[in-house]
Write a structure and sequence with these properties.
Elements lengths: L14 H11 L7 H14 L2 E5 L2 H11 L7 E5 L8 H5 L3 E5 L10 H14 L5 E5 L8 H11 L2 E5 L7 E2 L24 E2 L6 E5 L12 E5 L2 H11 L22 H11 L2 H18 L6 E3 L6 E2 L5 E5 L1 H4 L3 H10 L5 E2 L14 E3 L2 H9 E4 L7 H14 L14
Parallel strand pairs: 2-3, 2-4, 3-14, 4-5, 5-8
Antiparallel strand pairs: 1-9, 6-7, 6-11, 8-9, 10-12, 12-15, 13-15
Length: about 400
């Protein structure tokens, strides 16, 4: 039986036409109509200037340069994240200070952030910037985070690599959003802001397993046009104007190719559909496990729309009847791919000596969190295999059919 994979690319049908056009016109480098079109179409969607890059990691690197991060600086970062959120600080000679999660969204805790910055200010040494991650497709509590960082003069980069298509309207406890940008069609009085546009600089990822893909790539976003142009210049080896190959600053080979940008243009046309599909998968799991004790879906914070890029659940071993790791082994034997929640950076050998503020919440989420197959192309039969595997792990029996409508 074919293995059910965690998260795979899902083409929408228009990608080949854009790629074919690039071949037909021989625009096969890092300049051309697809690059310009992809950036323009994303800008029209989110309202910020965009630079298409070779990876999301490149976007974080350039974004921290824009924020003035350099040798000897400190950069705050969510500890519960993928290593690519943290490494770019070291590229620039800075050091990471790792901040714990809060339970409402699993993202960086604004309360711990404020306590840490107050202590830092008293000591006369504030961090240069903060990297705030939108984990698994859910925005952090960005109004609170930005309020704290503005109060202490700390610049902020929003790592929305996992949250492309997510939206944020702020205000704790709100439950709807405007029709214009809502995959659910619900309406709210609060203005919608897109994930990636909630800080000074934002970053997207289009890796093969993300909400939409360019088979590998990313994007930097900013509301400042001068920063967008600066990042674009850096991404093309910082070549000075003129016919000669002259350079006055260090640059990088970070630009996206036109072929990948063509795939991105096609993918962008189905982004809202992909959000609906991934959310539907997450909520079908939730309903299928509603009668089971000790397994619950990652929270859906009230300040925005969670894309549920991955369907992530917490397992309480005492109530569920087996540990998260035992459940992963059961599903592996059933031909179902899973993975744990990100291992916190402060538990990684690479960053074990870094300063951290808290860490207990992130450790608990890592030890108990499991990511289930979440591809937008996941069939009902495949999802039933996952559901039955989970239910079988506690002897709860199998479902004959889902019998549910996607939320």
């Amino acid at each position: 039986m074919q293995r059910v994979l965690l998260s795979v690319p899902h083409m929408g049908g228009m990608e080949e036409s854009y790629v074919g056009e690039a071949f037909e016109t021989n625009w096969l480098s890092t300049v051309g109509p697809n690059i310009e079109g992809f950036e323009r179409e994303m800008e029209e969607r989110v309202g910020w200037g965009c630079v298409a890059l070779g990876s999301g990691t490149a976007g974080i690197h350039l974004g921290l340069r824009l924020l003035g991060v350099g040798v000897g600086d400190e950069v705050l970062c969510s500890t519960l994240t993928f290593v690519a959120s943290v490494n770019p600080a070291r590229y620039l000679g800075a050091e990471a200070v790792l901040v714990d999660s809060e339970r409402a969204s699993w993202n960086l805790d604004p309360g711990i952030l404020e306590e840490g910055l107050r202590a830092r200010a008293a000591a006369g040494r504030l961090p240069k910037a903060a990297v705030v991650v939108d984990l698994f497709g859910q925005c952090a509590d960005m109004d609170a985070v930005m309020g704290v960082c503005r109060r202490w003069g700390v610049a902020v980069l929003e790592d929305a690599a996992e949250a492309v298509g997510g939206v944020y309207w702020g205000g704790r406890g709100q439950t709807a959003l405007s029709t214009a940008a809502s995959p659910s069609g619900q309406r709210s009085q609060s203005p919608v802001r897109h994930a990636g546009t909630l800080a000074d600089v934002g970053v997207y990822s289009f890796n093969g397993n993300k909400m939409i893909t360019t088979t590998g790539g990313g994007m930097l976003l900013s509301g400042r046009r001068d920063w967008v142009e600066k990042a674009r210049w850096w991404s093309q080896q910082a070549r000075d104007a003129g016919v000669g190959y002259e350079h006055s600053e260090v640059g990088h080979n970070y630009r996206m190719s036109t072929v990948r940008a063509g795939i991105g243009r096609g993918q962008l046309q189905v982004l809202d559909e992909r959000v609906r599909q991934r959310r539907g998968i997450a909520f079908r799991y939730r309903e299928a496990f509603a009668d089971l004790d000790g397994i619950e879906l990652m929270p859906q914070a009230g300040w925005g729309l969670h894309t549920n890029w991955l369907s992530v659940f917490l397992v309480d071993a005492r109530r569920f009847g087996c540990t998260r790791d035992e459940l992963m082994r059961v599903l592996d034997r059933a031909g179902v791919e899973t993975r744990p929640v990100w291992k916190p950076m402060h538990l990684q050998k690479l960053y074990e000596r870094s300063e951290r503020w808290g860490g207990g919440v992130a450790e608990d989420l890592w030890r108990r969190g499991i990511c289930l197959p979440s591809s937008s192309s996941l069939t009902e039969e495949e999802q039933l295999r996952v559901v039955n595997g989970v239910r079988g792990a506690v002897g709860a029996g199998a479902l004959r059919d889902l019998g549910m409508v996607a939320a």
